[in-house]
Amino acid sequence: MVIMDAAASGLAKAVWTSFGGQENAASALSFTGEGDLPAAYAVTDFATAAIAAAALSVAELAGRALSGIPPVTVDRRLSSFWFGWSIRPIGWTMPAPWDPIAGDYRTSDGWIRLHTNAPHHRAAAEQVLGRHGDRTGMARAVAPWAKADLEAAIVDAGGCAAEMRSSAEWMAHPQGRAVAAEPLAHIVATDRADRSSSWTPTPSRPLAGLRVLDLTRVLAGPVATRFLAGYGAEVLRIDPPGWDEPGVIPEVTLGKRCARLDLEDDAGRERFEALLAQADMLLHGYRPGALDRLGYDPATRRFLAPGLIDVSLNAYGWSGPWATRRGFDSLVQMSTGIAETGMHWRQSDRPVPLPVQALDHATGYFMAATAIRAVTRRLGEGLGTEARLSLARTARLLADGGPGNPSSPLLLEAGADLSLLVECTDWGDAQRLAPPAVVAGAAMHWACPARKLGSAAAVWP
How far apart are CA 141 and CA 163, in angstroms? Predict the structure, then answer.
């Protein structure tokens, strides 16, 4: 049943126009499904709007080969579910998503969150707090610290931590002020493409024939490239030797081939440059300056691939004193006041995050939307695009939407919410949730199942 969803529709239109889309194109959107995720913010509206913006970008591109933009229908329930986990293993279980030490800890004056999923991030926390085999031991080590002092010590050691701040404290913080002044996405036109202009979108598979080089990690970037693969893009994910994200890889490698390259090795660099030269899009989540230090600053990337669509993200924004700070969704929720607002909303005595990692997922769909809109721009103007997004700026958009007002809970997942196809992943058979959006005439589906990192060769097919 199609419903009137003024909140999601209005937010989707605002996002769409901020990315340069024509306001009248948003009339192609309609919504189905009822209910809301339980949260202090309107997370279901937020999820629905983010997916709507990405799907509308697909429809706009497909519309170049049609008489107009085809209708787009977005399901609120499925959008909410896709902001969690889309995979449903058959006869096996997903690896644990969190390191045993990761989590929220009480300090002498409040709360702090430690993010220790990566071995080097756990090592940094233990450099400051000592080694501990479980959360009980870590809690004892954290307890005497003031939260600001411990955050600073772990960050200085190369780790990831965030003290819990209120929304007011974040808005008064130099980084909060810097992020508030940034656009949702920094989008600029770059150089003219020198590649063949013969590519045109196929309405039934609008991104088929486009090559996407994926240098992203958990979780926003992989969500973006998974969406691109769902509409036909050839996505090649590149990871360094030894890197793994076992808790999320079965979820996010759907539709992709995954290879490894060492960009500090001459042979790896040569292969990477050959891949980049043939890529239409590069998506990456390195902190500002990281690719520069490897010799791949924006000018070099444009030189290697004129007309490149170059989309990047970071955690805390692209200006201000924290522009290069390491961060993840759960940390940004602590820093920006989301977890503190949730604590008061639930009348709890500890941080209450969003029920899903909405900053990651929404930013991923925003990345996909900007990338696809850049394809449309390149077809019309022949120009490349650079776009930069951040989790913190996405958090600001969520907060600006005001408090949530869940009218009713989402209906529980049912068999009809799952795809009928069985996905033969590298871990075992699985099903996926049905796609959360439908672009008329262009079904979202993936050409290959989820695969392990390093399972493919670093070549374009």
Answer: 16
